[in-house]
Amino acid sequence: MAFRQSSKQRHRGPDQTGLCVNDEYGFVLVQERLSIVGVKTGRQPLTSTNGMTHLVANGEIYNFLHMASLINDALKFEYYTPRSDCDVLVAFYELFGADRLLQIVRGMFAFVLYDCSTHRLLVARDPVGIVPLYYGWDDAGSLWFASELKCLVGCCAEVNVFPPSHSYYGPRESFVPKPYFQALWMTEISTARVDLELLKHHLERAVESHLQSEVPFGALLSGGLDSSLIASIATRILRARTDNSTFRLKTYSIGLEGESPDLTYARMVADHIGSDHTEVRFTIPEGIDLVRDAVYYAETYDVTTIRCIVAVMLLARAIRSEGIKVVLSGEGADELFGGYLYFHRAPSAAEFHRETVRRVRGLHLSDCLRANKGCAAWGLELRVPFLDTDFLQHVMSIRPEDRAPGIPSHDDHSTLEKRILRQAFADGNYLPPEVLWRQKEQFSDGVGYAWIDAIAQWASKRVTQTEYAAAGDRFPFNTPTTKEAFYYRKLFEQMFPGESFARTVQRWIPRTDWGCSEDPSGRKQDVHRGRNRQEQE
């Protein structure tokens, strides 16, 4: 049954399906593999040399070479060569134990390890929750884990999101996830003043660590600040690493046919950094045709996520058709630096900080979910350097007065969001000024303003007033507040029946208690420059 259920997520790993059935110890492990590091040697499930420790993992371990060196230092008279980046999890655990493993590992990951010698289970998810993980129990009392919620439909009545920064180590009968990653910025207001050179250095290091791959890779390029910086930094590193000043990173952007702010700026950045750039254009009917698939693959009914993931899926399919397996992207910067336009309304520096913490801790239910699942729908891995653990720690320790938009002054850029990130890369010709100082456009807006209007109208027309009037009775949890939201909730209920599945979803909305519009579109916020121009006209 586990093999059959896992087939529902085979799109995530189309290269290999690995199976380990252990009747003696009572567990089954299934893994759908997208082979990127250790292509020929890293097939999963991974088993220790003594046959007692078994692992399935999803993601990338960015410091696996460092971990391998620590393993070799401890072995002294033997030499360990990792079969893949995830293979170090098994060897490190056996030598140093679960606690030290979780302290030192860096990457995006969700893994399940079973130690037959101690009858203990080790489950962990990275600090932000870049890759998904769910769990549930079936009627027989068996504990299930899966990267996607759909694998638990039909076998688990009760399901939960395995929380980021949490782990469990112990007998399966006592399973309760507990936090292993904690930081002062989560509970206290940060006080460190920004050091722009140090900020720049940390981001460059994060990007470099995310470039390990044995297969072709590229970068998403929306034309916004975040993805553009990642692509520019990656290009410089790869040119230096290959000693090839003409190296061209493959970059990709998507936009609505005939109208997309993102395509214009992405082309400008591509010309500036000298990338091998591809534009993918889509029509509104093509996007509308994917709405049902968007709910199925995103496993959510959140309006923002559905609006965004349609374009992500269209882009991912085009990229995968060219043989690319890995892409870099700019997710996470808006949460770390308070980049969403509603942050301009933060009533105080302390409230700004608390809201960035809340957004970071909710990434696994919003941007990370959308980006990971939208790309994985076509067997494409997405990496997010802004959410590198060490970079995350550095940025979130910076005081909110520096991270927040500045107060108006003679400088036209003083009130822009993500001000210190822009300033850190202002020298060195990383980006054209038009992009470096471009106001935030949310992805679903930037692909074409008409897309948001069209999908909202189309979805709303599929809900009658009678249906909508009974929304509170039909959906008492996360009751839809618009007809568009109601329609997505209906689709979700068809695919993922039961309130337990509905409770895995979090709605992404701005802070209405700050006087912001509930609509997640950046155009609905009063500081949006396009909106201000339209009102003046």
From TrEMBL:
Residues 520-537 have a biased composition (Basic and acidic residues). InterPro entries: Asn_synth_AEB (IPR006426), Asn_synthase (IPR001962), Asn_Synthetase (IPR050795), AsnB_N (IPR033738), GATase_2_dom (IPR017932), Ntn_hydrolases_N (IPR029055), Rossmann-like_a/b/a_fold (IPR014729). One of its GO terms (molecular function) is asparagine synthase (glutamine-hydrolyzing) activity. It comes from the Eukaryota. The record marks E331 as: Important for beta-aspartyl-AMP intermediate formation. CDD domains: Asn_synthase_B_C (cd01991), AsnB (cd00712). This is Asparagine synthetase [glutamine-hydrolyzing]. It comes from Anopheles melas.
